[in-house]
Amino acid sequence: MICNNLSVTPDGRLLFAGRDLRDLADQYGTALYVMDEDRIRLMCRTYQKAMKEAFGENALPLYASKACSFKQIYRIMKEEKMGIDVVSPGEIYTAKEAGFDLSLAYYHSNNKSDEDIRFAMECGVGYFVVDNEEEVYAVSRIAWEMGLNQKVLLRITPGIDPHTYEEVATGKVDSKFGSAIETGQAMEITKKTLALQNVTLAGFHCHVGSQVFDSDVFIRSARVMVEFIAEVRKETGYLPFELDLGGGYGVRYVETDPVYSIEESILEVGRELKEMCRLYDLPLPQIHMEPGRSIVADAGLTLYTVGTVKRIPGYKNYVSVNGGMSDNPRFALYGSQYTVVLPEKMKEDCDFPCSVVGRCCESGDILQENVQLPASVTRGDLLAVLTTGAYNYSMASHYNRVLKLPVIMLAAGKDYVAVRRETFEDLTACDL
Ligand SMILES: *Cc1c(COP(=O)(O)O)cnc(C)c1O
């Protein structure tokens, strides 16, 4: 199976974190997100260990919480001694409510309003990752008004295109995020920040890849960043305390996705980075990485019940489930691949080609195309979409006034509700 928290019993039943999914469906109803807490913790520990080995004891992984954000996730991150990356006042509020120490929070976003900035400062967010010049002035002004000093990192665009795997000098310079080295704006914002009151420049940040399966993107951005830091030292004498290499390690959604080791990749990045720092005679800064997807994606699956099975002779077949783009918009948004199975029919031949679709009134409400399921698929069967722990719950909507799904956590053989199922009252709670 695509992840080792999945297995199949001799009589063809799928187990997730050792649990039979029918039991969970009977207890909690479908549709349902199921998450494997032990797997989330294992991934946190994998990053902690590998990063300390690669970059030294003060290295810190920051969980990019936009991948999956609710109170219990932040409690787990607190217990695992992770930092977090947050991108909105809503995420900051949720982390705060969960008792997360916000001095370990890094606040991203390309467009923070004055209210957002003030709110984050009032909550005691440790670091702002500043996107652009306008923002650093706003942060400085509001920090002065509030009588505090705000630590900031500058988001630098290193000019790397992660998709072509080629250094394209202009590639990604036109990104919505960050200040580009190539245009001179990165150096400019660095100098301006160093001269500003009420902000302390803690270091630099970059984030270029996503669904990355090797060390390449990280090594290339580390190189560009070290060269930039050397340039900054030459021009200003400033040395950063922190360097954040961003997130992006990939997960296996389908069997054809590559198998690789995050630990080995991080060790490789560590060797390269140390070599680069030696070459430029720079002290190794404190290193951060910001994994989101790779912490939570394969710790999750979505469990549905099959409804209508429609066969259109000579054309195609549809298998409909009691959820869809409202709980997983990723296929509709960018054609994301997923593995779809019938958890109680794992030993049956899969020779029924179909599209697995949702319940929303929208032709684009498709969970996956070109799926092969057992031909016996019928109303009432359980259907699971695997690897939905990242960017599913966090991207869910109320389209068609469909209720958002609950999140059931599995930990050490037990199960508990982390996010309860919504009610119709929740749905109209804001309607006047
Ligand atoms: C989205 C994001 C991440 C996490 O990326 P993953 O691909 O989920 O690991 C990290 N850092 C920043 C700045 C991001 O925007």
Commentary on this structure:
This protein is α/β, with parallel strands linked by helices and 432 residues long. It has two domains: 6-36 and 297-427, Lyase, Ornithine Decarboxylase, Chain A, domain 1 (Beta Barrel), CATH 2.40.37; 108-291, Alanine racemase (TIM Barrel). It has helices at 21-28, 37-55, 71-79, 89-97, 114-123, 133-145, 185-195, 216-236, 262-279, 293-296, 330-334, 424-427; strands spanning 6-8, 14-16, 19-20, 32-36, 60-64, 83-86, 105-107, 127-130, 150-157, 179-180, 199-205, 242-244, 286-289, 300-311, 317-321, 340-341, 350-357, 366-374, 382-386, 407-411, 414-419. The strands form three sheets. Strands 4, 14, 15, 16, 17, 18, 19, 20 and 21 form a nine-stranded mixed beta sheet that branches. Strands 5-6-7-8-9-11-12-13 form an eight-stranded parallel β-barrel, surrounded by five helices. It has a three-stranded antiparallel beta sheet with strand order 1-2-3. Strand 20 and strand 21 (414-419) form a beta hairpin. Helix 2 runs parallel beside helix 9 (262-279) and helix 4 (89-97) runs parallel beside helix 5 (114-123). The longest helix is centred in the middle third of the chain and has 21 residues, at 216-236. It is globular. The chain starts with 5 loop residues before the first strand and ends in a 5-residue tail after the last helix. The model is unreliable at 164-171 (pLDDT under 50). The chain binds pyridoxal-5'-phosphate (PLP). Pyridoxal-5'-phosphate binds at residues 64, 66-67, 85, 108, 207, 210, 246-249, 290-294. Residues 64, 66-67, 85, 108, 207, 210, 246-249, 290-294 line the site of pyridoxal-5'-phosphate.
